[in-house]
Amino acid sequence: MNLLVTGAAGFIGSHFVLRHIENFSDDKIVVLDKLTYAADKRFLDPVLDKIKFVEGDIADKNLVTEIVKENGIDTIINFAAESHVDRSISDASPFIHTNVIGTQNLAEVCRDNDVFLFHISTDEVYGDLSDDEPPKKIDDLLRPSSPYAASKAAAEMMVSAAVRTYGIKACISRCTNNFGPHQAEEKFIPTVIRHALKDEPVPIYAEGKNKRDWLYVTDHTDAIEIILKSQLSNSSESSVNIFNISADDEKENIEVAKAILDILGKPHSLLEFVEDRPGHDWRYAIDSSETKKLGWSPRVSFEEGLEDTVEWYVKRL
Ligand SMILES: NC(=O)c1ccc[n+]([C@@H]2O[C@H](COP(=O)([O-])OP(=O)(O)OC[C@H]3O[C@@H](n4cnc5c(N)ncnc54)[C@H](O)[C@@H]3O)[C@@H](O)[C@H]2O)c1
């Protein structure tokens, strides 16, 4: 395969590329990344001699077209995104630019060059659930709460419309919260580690009771590989296929923060409750049985993954 992987100097995309090169060394990979605050090109250092790296914007149609034509790209995997909910509350415009316009641009390049599009989305498009609601299924209504989630839902709609109207081949995956090395320092788990290492108060929204379903990052990238394989062998589809990906391992944010403090040997008294995020989603839960039917299941336990994550940040920070 000749893959264009966008956003692969960021958290999840970098793990995808490192693992893909290890498992499919004959494939050609071109990475396109704008190198925003969330990126670190050094994550790709171990494979830089095996891939082509292009710095640029997924919304730049001439650039994406040139990359696709020059490299005979047959598949685009779109990890590129503005991904931090808090930033989207302050200013949503970069989210519209990258997540919506950028994704639409990729869909048009796929149409014009007969390329398969794998769009990486999020469980946040469903909005939140109360404690007694069943996990969301792929046909459930999308009720995004934050500007970030709304931009991701809009991106999905552009992909879905491109399948119907242009006849492109595409699929979408919606994953729960990821954790692991390489995540931008301002996200929740790295923030807890960073403050705890300096013995500073660790900020926790409200009372830390909001629930998230955490998946170790390489379990996410493994699911993407399995879905991709299933889609390529199923190329006659005329509608977009959507897959939920989750570990079914919900935890309150406060539990996660305490587990990190325990690994670092720091007191729970460092936790400091701060004013809640506006529109803060209470709980996410999704039904990923369709993805599991493809033969995928998470392999890294929360405890094991958290130990590895903390160890990585301790060395880096
Ligand atoms: N992190 C999670 O917990 C999580 C969970 C579910 C889904 N997702 C989705 O997975 C994808 C990757 O998330 P992540 O956490 O790795 O994000 P990230 O913020 O760590 O990385 C995003 C990458 O995209 C690049 N980028 C941003 N704008 C760009 C543009 N216009 N053109 C090219 N590159 C651009 C950045 O430089 C960065 O390298 C996103 O689509 C996100 O919505 C993330």
Mean pLDDT: 96
Instruction: Output the strand order for the largest sheet.
Output: 3-2-1-4-5-6-11
Beta fraction: 15-25%
- Main sheet? 7 strands, parallel
Structural class: alpha/beta
Per CATH, the class of the largest domain reads Alpha Beta
Count of helical regions: 10
Listing every helix as H and every strand as E from the N terminus to the C terminus, the arrangement reads: EHEEHEHHEHEEHEEEHEEHEHH
Q: Assign the CATH superfamily of the largest domain.
A: NAD(P)-binding Rossmann-like Domain
Q: Helix content range of the residues, please?
A: 40-55%
**Which spans have pLDDT < 50 for at least 5 consecutive residues?**
none
By DSSP, the count of extended strands is: 13
Write the layout of secondary structure elements.
Layout: E1 2-6, H1 11-23, E2 28-33, E3 52-55, H2 61-71, E4 75-78, H3 85-90, H4 93-113, E5 116-122, H5 147-165, E6 170-175, E7 178-179, H6 188-197, E8 202-205, E9 211-213, E10 215-216, H7 217-232, E11 241-245, E12 250-252, H8 253-264, E13 271-274, H9 289-293, H10 302-316
Parallel strand pairs: 1-2, 1-4, 2-3, 4-5, 5-6, 6-11, 7-10, 8-13
Antiparallel strand pairs: 9-12
Helix pairs in contact: 1-7, 2-4, 4-5, 6-8, 8-10
This protein binds nicotinamide-adenine-dinucleotide.
The site of nicotinamide-adenine-dinucleotide has 31 residues, from helix 1, strand 2, helix 4 and strand 5.
